[in-house]
Amino acid sequence: MAMHLHCLTLLVALQMKGEAEAFAVEAKAKAEAEQMEKKANAWKEYQDAAVVDMILDVLPKVCHPLSLLNCHALHISAFCLTVCLIL
């Protein structure tokens, strides 16, 4: 009887140890998944910010020459209009 009780106690202890280890593995996996999700979100935000920064850097470089072309076109149009009115 004592031997049977001892074996039963060992089995219960082994089962409890297995359940505790499984719980720890599950908790660790959940924590790692949350950490990976947070990193992915941070990289997405960084990427979005980098794109906006690049656009804001390039936009003036593109718009300035275009505005000069537009400005020259307006001067030419105004000159042509003046000449046409005179003639």
Q: Specify the structural class.
A: mainly alpha
Largest sheet: none
What proportion of the residues form beta strands (DSSP E)?
under 5%
- pLDDT < 50 runs, ≥5 residues: none
Short synopsis of the structure:
With 87 residues, this protein is an all-alpha fold. It is 98% helix and 0% strand.
Describe the structure.
The protein is mainly α and 87 residues long. It has a domain at 57-87. It has one helix at residues 2-86. The longest helix is centred in the middle third of the chain and has 85 residues, at 2-86. The protein is rod-shaped. 0% of the residues are buried. The model has no long low-confidence stretch (mean pLDDT 83).
Indicate the topology:
Elements: H1 2-86
What are its keywords?
single chain, about 0% strand, about 90 residues, rod-shaped, mainly alpha
